[in-house]
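name: query_chain
kind: protein
chains: 1
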Amino acid sequence: MFRRPTGTEDRLPDQQAVWRFIVKAAETTAARFGYGRLDTPTFEETALFVRGVGEGTDLIEQETYTFEDRGGTRLTLRSEGTAPAMRAYLQSGLQSAPIPVRLYYVTPIFRYDRPQRGRLREHHQFGVEAIGESDAAMDVETIQLLSCFYHAAGLSSVNLQLNSIGDERCRPAFIEILRHYYSSRLDQVCANCQVRYVKNPLRLLDCKEDRCQPVIAAAPKPLEHLCAGCREHFERVQYLLRLLRITFTLNDRLVRGLGYYTRTVFEFYGAREGAQAALGGGGRYNRLVEELGGKPTPAVGFGCGLERVVLALQEEHVPRPEDPGIDISICHLGREAEDWALIVASTLRQQGFRVVTTPGERRIAVQLKQADHYRARFAGIIGSEEAASRTVSLRDMKTKEEKHGLTVESIIARLSTEARDSH
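structure:
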């Protein structure tokens, strides 16, 4: 028997309602902030991710799904959303649009990672990109959008952590200071950090291994080495967050895992403890468009894993949205009754109602049980008498009250009234 690939999930019918709710919350929140939807291909040229994310990052070194197509082009399944969005921005001519260009996406992401609760090899991400504006207010709008999404989804226990990692003017000097500090302590850190020391030194501050924590605790901090421009920008971000009453905690170990970030970085965390507590985050990346061949263009954005939001809702015991069920289940007894049932169902569907029938020969009691399974508001019952008179008996599945001899027009009126009342 075949099984789904490791690190993937099936989303069954009874899980779809909560998923639609989460996606709708993302789309509605993005629209409220003036963002337009962007959809990019499932795969891109591998070079896009190498150039955008950066060689030496865990994502490029260990986690991408990369293959060569029949034309000899190396392609990679979408491993993050920002580099493809910037490629689309450059290729489609959005540079001529009014700034900032506001884009959002809800898309699958593919990463070959060790599967854990809330960390899948195929997961789904809600992300936004605001392109062309360097002002700190753009950072804050992005953070506020993500905060509003979490509240729209029903989460109450989220906290924001904030840091600045400097830019091309002050970060190189900080990295040298960091390397100097670690140079005499490499025997005290994990094997991954020994590699990061050479390839991606900022990630040294982000390691979760126990043996590395004492070294990290005494390490130099990015906030202590910002240039005047970065310090002023970060102070403005904090001021505006306080102005909007968005609470936050400074975290001088927060650096984010991708190589394109500059200045502001942030993450939102849920109530649970551990490495999977992070719900989503992002930051500013002022050099990425230029790295991909465009003109120097500031940008800021975030990515939020939707599966983790679903888990956080479960952990907060937020009531789970349910599918509203169907409007009516048409039950029948006999071949002529089945013919009339199909006509009735077709007519009601043309009017926009959700209708199921029960093909084949089953007892009425069995068909009514199926109506309960579908959470039908009503059951239409058709026997030989109803088939001959072209009528339907209607059962209210809540009160069990039945009305007999109703025309199809009467059924339409009853369902319409119920739909209005339910709204």
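note: The longest strand covers residues 101-110.
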